[in-house]
Prior knowledge:
Helix content: 55-70%
Number of strands: 0
Low-confidence stretches: none
Order of helices and strands: HHHHHH
Number of helices: 6
Amino acid sequence: MSLPASLSAWLLVALCAVSGGYCLRRVRRSEPDARGGPAGEALMGFGMAVMAVPSGIGPWGPGILLGVFSGAVLHALWLLRGGVHHAHHLVGSLAMAYMALTMAGGHGHGGGAPLVTGALLLYFTGYVLLGGARLVTAGGAGQPAGGGPPVMPAELTRACRLAMGMGMLAMLLSL
Length: 175
C-alpha cells in the first residue's frame, strides 16, 4: 500500500510542524539558560516542515532556505560552547543547509554529492535506530509519584526527536 507523493509530503510537513511546536513549548517552559537546545530543535522542526512542502507551493525558495539553515548552523556552533552533546544540532543544521544548497543548484532529485548524502543517511539511520531503542526501553518514566497529573515526559521529547530524525531520513532519501 503506497500513498501518493503529495499526501506523503503533507504528512511529513504535519509531523515536522507538530514536532517544532512541541519543541517551542519546551522553550517556553525551560529556564532561560537551558533554552538553546529546545530552540534549535524547534527551528529544525519548523524548517523541516517548510522544506517538506511540495515544490512550487509557498513563497520561499531554496535560497531563502539556505539562508535560514546557514543561520541555524551558526546557532548550532554557538550551542557547542555548552558541550559536545549539542553536536547533533550542528549535523542536522548542516544536513538541512546541504539539502537547500542541492535544491538551489537546481539538482532536485538525484542531486547532491553521493558521499555526503550517504554519510548523512548513515548518521541519521543510526540516530533513528538508537533513538527508537532508547524510546522502547525508557519504560514508564514521567509519571509522578502519588498519582498527580503527568509531567511532560522525557519519552515525548525522545519521540519528537525520533520523528524529526525519521523526517530527515525521508528528505535525504528524496535527494
